[in-house]
């Protein structure tokens, strides 16, 4: 892939020893880096914490030759066209397209359920990362907005309440009222039972997904292809986050290591191919940081969103 103009990809910042803590951003980074690994095409990687700079008000998004492309699926499709590997009508391409849609829903939902739906995982993981990255006042409203966007995706799929805890007070201590009875041992037992049930439901969803993906690798290095495709990067992004993100309760890594080692090895392979230890093998990439909008602009955006949500 060789073009005169530089490609600029805006993503959520790196964390947990990965190029990004966001599953869509990570998938796009991996694929773009692999396409540019021969050094013939340079690109700029911009770590951004302001999704409103994107035409879709979400990250990642890509700028190239006067175009702005939002959503990971559109970015991956655009990069595939630049590579001259646009999905065709052959059986293999049709299968990859179908599996790509499956991964974009089922496996990504599973990943986001672990990172966002479980309150304890969210507090020690994504929320902690955002708290260190975001300036005032964005750190007070943007994490909640992002989590609500994930929730809106997971709830219709039945993935939001898999490992849910009591969140009514949003991390605040419950106010005691006169004559309230103290929590009993029965309450603690119920909590333990609910946690065990939630864990098993999460593992059941994971097994269903991995059981379908595992045979696609067979004895090959990549999914349904002899070379890397967007499907590989989508799967790898999910698995890398499931295995590397900081979480409090996550049974998925142990499940992968014990029963689905090929999928785990595949994700490690994609990451090492995209970011090899040999510096000479890396693409010509410029890493920058996008400046956040000033506090007044951020506050104006927040007020506008509140008014819009109330009016709707």
Automatic annotation (TrEMBL):
GO terms for cellular component: SAM complex. It is found in: Mitochondrion outer membrane. The keyword Mitochondrion applies. Transmembrane segments: none annotated. Residues 25-147 form the Mitochondrial outer membrane transport complex Sam37/metaxin N-terminal domain. One of its GO terms (biological process) is mitochondrion organization. Its main location: mitochondrion. Coiled coil: none annotated. The keyword Membrane applies. This is Mitochondrial outer membrane transport complex Sam37/metaxin N-terminal domain-containing protein. It comes from Serendipita indica (strain DSM 11827) (Root endophyte fungus).
